[in-house]
Amino acid sequence: MAKAKFTPYSSADYLDNEKVIAEYLAAAMEDPNPDVFLLAVSNVAKARGVAKIAKDSGLGRESLYKTLTPGAKPRYETLRKIVEALGVKWTIARPSVKRRTADAHA
């Protein structure tokens, strides 16, 4: 029997259009663990090209990698620059009705 060959999985391989990227980042923002969002931003940066995102955000490649490492505590201004370089926009919205109702009963 031949051994199965596997290739490493990378989310970046599937982040191939604006809608998918926006939904991916929005879903990551809903997780209370900030490392989930940092990992998602890192995956989008890899999909778009780390060197390009570093240049567009005004950060060096090494700084970008360090900023997006799980456990990092990046400044708001730094994340804002990176998100803008990714070509997406942050928005604030009220929670869905289901969530507000569930929170009211807690």
How would you sum up this structure, described in words?
The chain is an all-alpha fold and 106 residues long. It has one domain (15-90): 434 Repressor (Amino-terminal Domain) (Orthogonal Bundle). It is 58% helix and 0% strand. The chain has six helices and no strands. It has helices spanning 18-30, 34-48, 50-57, 61-67, 76-86, 97-104. Helix 1 (18-30) packs antiparallel against helix 2 (34-48) and helix 3 (50-57) crosses helix 5. The longest helix has 15 residues, at 34-48.
Structural features:
6 helices, mainly alpha, 434 Repressor (Amino-terminal Domain), 106 residues, single chain, 0% strand
Which architecture per CATH? Orthogonal Bundle
Q: How far apart, in Å, are the first and last alpha carbons?
A: 55 Å
Q: Which fold name is given in CATH as the topology?
A: 434 Repressor (Amino-terminal Domain)
What about the largest sheet?
A: none
Which class best fits the helix and strand makeup? mainly alpha
Strand content: under 5%
Structural domains: how many: 1
Instruction: Tell me how many strands there are.
Output: 0
User: What is the ordering of alpha helices and beta strands?
Assistant: HHHHHH
User: What's the Cα radius of gyration?
Assistant: 17 Å
User: Considering DSSP H and I runs of 4 or more, what fraction of the residues is helical?
Assistant: 55-70%
Spans of at least 5 consecutive residues whose pLDDT stays below 50 are none
Query: Can you count the helices?
Result: 6
